[in-house]
Amino acid sequence: MPIQLTSQAYCKMLLHTAKYPHCAVNGLLVAEKTKEKKKDGHSGPVLCVDCVPLFHGTLALAPMLEVALTLIDTWCKENNYIIVGYYQANEQTKDSRPNQVAQKVAARILENFSEAAIVMVDSSRLTMSCFEPIVFIHDHHENKWKVREVTTDAFEDWSEAQKITSALLVGRSYESLIDFDNHLDDLRNDWTNPTINKSVLDLC
Amino acid sequence: MASLSEMYDVGWEEMRDKLRKWREDNCRNSEQIVDVGEELISEHASKLGDDIWIIYEQVMIAALDCSRDDLALVSFRHTSSHAQKASQTCLQELRKQFPDSHRVKRLTGMRLEALERYDEANKHYDAILQEDPTNTAARKRKISILRAQGKSTEAIRELNEYLEQFVGDQEAWHELSELYINEHDYGKAAFCLEELMMTNPHNHLYCEQYAEVKYTQGGMENLELARKYFAQALRLNNRNMRALFGLYMSASHIAASPKVSAKLKKDNIKYAAWAAAQINRAYKLAGRGNKENKCSIKAVEEMLESMQITMS
C-alpha cells in the first residue's frame, strides 16, 4: 500500500529543502514497524512518521551514504522503525525527476521494504504559506518508478501538516535543522532533531 | 519589530566584524547577512568608513541569494521585497561611487542572473570581457549561468577551457570536481582533486574528498587508495569524522573481501579496529553530558559490531 506522510515527516523535509535552497538535499523516510498483517492481506497505508535529513550539496558519493544508512538502520531497530522511503530535492529547481542517486538508494531500501517510495520535493513551488503539497511520490511498479498523483490523501492530516510547516518556515526553524552532514561536521549535532520534533508536537 | 542590535545586544562593531568573518570564510548564510548588513547600513553607515563599499557588495550578493528562486516572490515574501530593495539600493550606491568599475558591472550581471534574465546577463559579461579579456570573474559568472540552467556538459567544457588558461584557480578546480561528481564521472573528479591536493598538500578536506571519490569508483585498487587517503586526511586533521568513518568503511570492506591475501586482511582488520575505537571515543566525548546523544553512541557501537561480524 502506498505511503502516507505525517506532519512531522513532511515539515522536516521542507525545512531541509528551505535550509539549503541552492543545493540538492536528500534524506530517509521512516515508519513504525507493524507486527501483524491484517487477515485479508490488505494493510492500511504505510504512515511515514518521521524523516532523517541526510546530505546537502554533493549527493553522489558513496562512503558517507553507507555510514548513514547503516547507522540509521541501527537507530531504526532500536526505535521499532523501518526505512520505507527516500526523499530528494534537486539542485535544479525546475527538475523534479528522481535521478541515479535517488534510484540507487531507493533500490537498496526496496530490498528491505517492498513498497518503498521515492518522494521528490518540488522546490520551485516552496512557499511560506504551503498552500499546496509540493511533493511527487514515486512508487515502484514493474521495475520502474512511476509518479503518482498527490492529493491530500497522501497525508495523515493535510491541514495540520500545512499549518505546522508554514509556521516553522516563517519562524525560520530551518536554521536549526540538523542533517547528517551537520552531524559529521560536529558529532554533537543531533540528526534526530529533537527540538524541531518538539516544536511540531507543540503546534499539533 | 525590534532591531537585531536590540534583540541580541550587539554593537555595530560586532555586526561589522561578523560580516567580515563571513566574508573571509565565504559563508553562504545569506538571510543572516541581509539581516545584519541591512541594519548596519541603514543605522551606522557613517561609522563604517571605506568598509561600507565591500559591505554593500556582500549584502547585495546575499540579498540576491534570498530572492533568487521562485520561492522568492511568493514565499520569502517579506524578505524578498525587502531583499530586492536592499540589492537595488546597494547596487545604486556602488554604481555612484565606482561608475566604471568592472567589479560593480559584475554585480549588475549577478542581479540579472538572479532575475533569471540569463541572456541579458551573458551580454553584460561579454561586454566586460570585450574590454578586459582577462577578467576571470566575468568568465566564471558565465559558467555559473550554464550550471544554473542545467547545462552541465557545456559548463564542464567551458570550465576546462578556463582552467587551461588559469591553471592555478583552486575555486575553479573544485567547482569542476563537483560538476564531474554530479555527472558520476568519478575518474575526472579524482583528477581535479589530485590537482588540488598537489597545490594544497596540507588540506585535509581535499584528501578526504579524493578518498570518497575513489571509494565510490569501487574496485579493490580504488578501495585501497581510498583507505590510504582517508588515513592521510586523518594525519592532517585527526578530528575529521568523515575521514575516520571512511577509513573504517574502506578497511572493513577490504578485510571482508574474499580476494585479499591473508596479510592484507590482517592489516585491514587492524586499521578497522583502530578506526572503530577512535569513532567510539569521539562519540563518547561528544555525548558527555548529553542524555539524548546516548542513542547515537549506542547506534554507532552496534553498527561497528555488526560490521565486525562480516569481516571475520
UniProtKB/TrEMBL annotation, chain B:
Domain of life, source organism: Eukaryota
List membrane-spanning regions.
none
A GO term from the CC aspect: EMC complex
Q: Kindly give the PROSITE patterns that the UniProt entry links to this protein.
A: TPR
Q: How does it sit in the membrane?
A: Peripheral membrane protein
Q: Which SUPFAM superfamilies match?
A: TPR-like (SSF48452)
* Domain (EMC2 TPR-like): residue spans on this chain: 105-214
Alphabetical UniProt keywords? Endoplasmic reticulum, Membrane, Repeat, TPR repeat
* Entry annotated with the keyword Endoplasmic reticulum: yes
Spell out the subcellular localization from the entry.
Answer: Endoplasmic reticulum membrane
Pfam families under this entry? TPR_EMC2
TPR repeat copies, ranges: 170-203
The protein's role, per its UniProt record: Part of the endoplasmic reticulum membrane protein complex (EMC) that enables the energy-independent insertion into endoplasmic reticulum membranes of newly synthesized membrane proteins.
State the family named in the UniProt similarity comment for this chain: Belongs to the EMC2 family.
Self-association state and partner proteins as the record states: Component of the ER membrane protein complex (EMC).
Tell me the PANTHER family matching this sequence.
TETRATRICOPEPTIDE REPEAT PROTEIN
The protein's name in its UniProt record? ER membrane protein complex subunit 2
